[in-house]
UniProtKB/TrEMBL annotation:
Protein name: biotin--[biotin carboxyl-carrier protein] ligase
Residue ranges occupied by any BPL/LPL catalytic domain in the UniProt entry: 7-202
SUPFAM superfamilies assigned: Class II aaRS and biotin synthetases
NCBIfam families to which the protein is assigned, alphabetical: birA_ligase
GO MF: biotin--[biotin carboxyl-carrier protein] ligase activity
InterPro entries, per the entry: aa-tRNA-synth_II/BPL/LPL, Biotin_CoA_COase_ligase, BPL_C, BPL_LPL_catalytic
GO cellular component, one term: cytoplasm
Stored Gene3D superfamilies: 2.30.30.100, Bira Bifunctional Protein, Domain 2 (3.30.930.10)
Amino acid sequence: MSFVQLLQTAALVRVQYLETCGSTNAEMQRLVAATPQLAPLLLVTAAQTSGRGRQGRQWQESPGNSLATSYFLPSLPPGAAAPTWIPLLAGVALVQALQKWVPAQLKWPNDILVPLHTAGVQRQPDDLATQRGGFKLAGILCEQTASGYIIGAGINLLTPVSQLPPGAISLRSCGATAPEQPLAALADHLLALYVQRLQELLATATRQPERLPEIVAAQLATLGQRVRAIMPDGATVTGFAQGLGAYGELILQQSDGTTVAIAAADIEHLRVGA
């Protein structure tokens, strides 16, 4: 697979394409442990066989129809925003790249959704899509290593509806690509947009970190919604998503008027009155 647009746009990023890969994040961890990387590196595959999501979940993909990437960021300079912003910035970058084709939105903290009733979508909302507040088109998984940060992304590009897991969607099943659209050309165009925007946002995190809450909030479908936060220990918190904290936390206002900052949780969008 060639990346003409990507290499023209992201001249300072080395790109490595893998014909097949268990997990691009795991492969990136192996690479940076074996050979220290002083500049950004991007791994790409269209055949990831053991993708991972948050909290050890499996990321299901259709080989040859999906795209998996891992971007290695060696470091954040002194004075930059907290690294907890990196997953949100990656999500915003991917959302804005995908908006070339569909009205993508970010669901805090790491899901990229297409609204349930978007014109052209070729499947009906199921319970999982309804809980999320949209069909899942892509996801972000960020991991920290001793030498930097790995920003993983999985994107459903050409997967037909019959091969999609519950609650998911692809660009093709949104009616956003031509039937004969080749994966390579679509991947090149999308990655060029994504990496360029990611680099711009990471630069903003260094030069103007105070702008990050506004930038992320503008793409965040979760804000203004009544949500249930399911914590890693199983506890739940329900409230209206009001904004973002200094480290990217989701601020919920509970029914008694108090607010709570959620640093890590699964978020369900609730109907008012639920």
